[in-house]
Amino acid sequence: MCGIVAYIGPKEAYPILIKGLKRLEYRGYDSAGVALLDGSLRVLKKEGKVSILEEYSTSQDTSGTVGIGHTRWATHGVPCDKNAHPHLSQSGNIAIIHNGIIENYNSLKKELEQLGYSFHSDTDTEVLVNLIEDIQKEDKLSMEEAVRVALNEVIGAYAIVVIDKREPDKLVAARKGSPLVIGIGKDEFFVASDASPIIEYTKNVVYLNDEEIAVLNRNGDLEIKTLGNIQKSPYVQKLEMDLEKIERGGYEHFMLKEIYEQPQVILDCMRGRMNAEKGWIKLGGITEYLPRINNAKRIIITACGTSWHSGLIAEYLIEELARVPVEVEYASEFRYRNPIVTEKDVVIAISQSGETADTLSAIQIAKDRQALIYGICNVIGSSIARASHAGSYTHAGPEIGVASTKAFTAQVTILTLLALQLAQAKGTISQSRLRQILYELEQIPSKVAEALKTNDKVKEIAAKYKDAHNFLYLGRGLSFPIALEGALKLKEISYIHAEGYPAAEMKHGPIALIDENMPVVFIATNMSAYEKIVSNIQEVKARKGKVIAIVNSGDSQIKALADEVIELPETDELLSPLVSIVPLQLLSYHIALMRGCNVDQPRNLAKSVTVE
Ligand code: F6R
To answer: Looking at the structure, do residues 488 and 541 belong to the same domain, yes or no?
Structure first.
């Protein structure tokens, strides 16, 4: 939520900031702004996307070799020019950009008002910058000391970068609960919410830890200290990210590119982790903890959104294969309901971004209660990856489209391997069944590639149903989480109301909604529930609903009943979610596009949800 970028060095800062903000726009796109320091401190900011700021800036002075930039996902105050970042302190000397929430901003604001400060925005950030100014003025402190003292008074989450026109040769950055990475170039520094704005300038980065403050000096010195004023030596790491991977590469949208990357992503995710021929699976991150995971009385999976859906699939897989009880919890509920967790539990936290605030808090609660935390994240070095005892990366590459696609299939792939490795270790699967599934898993990338060939058919269907006001998605067993995920994809990018349901639950309520205007998407690829799904389809047809059925190729019974049919290659039922999600991703993409929606940046959403 909110993207921040900053630069200090010999180059002009503005082009670096604007390019960086465009890369970070997936984190929020309500407003954007920059502050540039070149003798004077100038702030340019506008409601709306970075391109609006860019257009506005063409008529403005954008010079300066130090600067900060921000793209906002609104929390405090509506999206508008005055609430856009950067925010200036009352004197106009200090400018700040902030990602996160200052929870005690109200009481701080009141104190500052009594001291004569007035506020021009509705944001918590403006309170923070004035708090820094007040501390600096009162105690005659350097900027970094004032920032450190101020942050000790603050409750909440933040990643901030601050500049002061009286100290033009430094940037001060700090984080707690929101990500921040520092890029180290030759006589220059970059700061950003993730590495994407930095990658083309340097591969040397330092990930700032919670409660750390960095001072980036123009002379090339980088100092890091804690909020408690303890010096730290910077731990420089090499970025593995590729520039090519964060560009659209000829596709009209990131979402489409990411949907089409899935065969390769699944392959990359399995690489070196399994061998069907030899019947082995080895998730590197698990080895050290396998005995503890093996003896777990229960596995709790916690996540949000799409990642929660992959957790539901894992519940089916782990219970079926490894016979361990699994509970799947929304992180946002788990963290607030005093859950019963003990040292005998293993908690699997799933997150693409690795920064989701609710998932991070759920981990903390489980950790406090001595559970083992296994993190499944996509973003390397992310907060959840670092907060976990053990874990596996999904290696899906940067996911930029706000609607998660390839990260989901990568998560499901890892979770399938995890379930199989557990089953093997517990002896709940025969070697021949294990090999059979692994062989089938090896075929999944080519079956997903086949599924992508349904694109034209899906597009035709999208054109027919794009004006519907509601959609119902139904599936049984492993296809139920796919129904949920298909519905989520549709609602988040096309703004059509959609619900996912277990197909058998339809008769307990949703059936009342069905009439000739209601498209019902059936995921009917799992053969063990085939006859039951056929009956559910008949129930919908009897009420004149429009049936869009996802079936295995060669199906004839459902084909005869459904209005539309999308045929997919058959696979082992346990692996079917990896294939059946593909046409649903494409369906939401085409419908959103036909309705004129912004596919990669749907309204009100942000890619990385670092607020509760
Ligand atoms: C949906 C989507 C969100 C995320 C959710 C969790 O397409 O992207 O529902 O899945 O915000 O995010 P992560 O996985 O980053 O924790």
So the answer is: yes
Indicate the pLDDT class of residue 502, thresholds 50, 70 and 90: very high
Contact (CB, 8 A) for 67 and 7:
yes
CATH of the domain at 458: 3.40.50.10490
Q: Which of 22, 109, 170, 607 is catalytic?
A: 607
Q: Are residues 185 and 198 in the same domain?
A: yes
Q: What mean pLDDT do residues 458-487 have? A: 97
The pairing of strands 390-393 and 470-475 is unpaired
* Ligand 1 atom nearest to 303, measured from its CA: 16
- Average pLDDT over the chain reads 93
Q: How many angstroms separate the CA atoms of 314 and 46, rounded?
A: 44
Of all protein residues, the one whose alpha carbon is nearest to atom 5 of ligand 1 is 305
Residues 6+ apart with CB under 8 A from 346: 292, 293, 296, 298, 299, 300, 371, 372, 374
154 & 300 share domain: no
Full domain range(s) for residue 481: 453-601
pLDDT at 174 exceeding the cut of 70: yes
Q: Is residue 145 part of a domain?
A: yes
What is the average per-residue pLDDT within 351-374?
Answer: 95
Pocket test for ligand 1, best of 254, 328, 355, 356 (most atoms within 8 A of CB): 356
User: How far, in Å, is the centroid of ligand 1 from the Cα of 108?
Assistant: 33
Distance 274 CA to ligand 1 centre (A): 27
Residue among 226, 195, 194 at smallest CA distance from 210:
226
- Measured from CB, residues less than 6 Å from any atom of ligand 1 are 304-307, 351-353, 356, 359, 403-404, 488, 492, 609
Give the CATH number of the domain where residue 95 resides. Answer: 3.60.20.10
**Strand partners of residue 117:** none
Predicted TM-score of the model (pTM): 0.85
611 — pLDDT class (breaks 50, 70, 90): low
Is-contact 158 100, C-beta < 8 A? yes
Residue 607 covered by a domain: no
Which of 609, 611, 612 is the best mutation target for the ligand 1 pocket, counting ligand atoms within 8 Å of the beta carbon and taking the most? 609
| 607 in catalytic set | yes
Neighbours of 107 (CB within 10 A): 12
Establish whether 2 is a catalytic residue.
Answer: yes
How many residues are listed for the chain in this entry?
612
* Closest protein CA for atom 3 of ligand 1: 305
d(CA 116, CA 132): 15
Percent of the chain with pLDDT over 90: 82
Query: Catalytic: which of 2, 269, 377, 597?
Result: 2
Q: For a substitution probing ligand 1, which of 404, 409, 597, 600 has the most ligand atoms within 8 Å of its CB?
A: 404
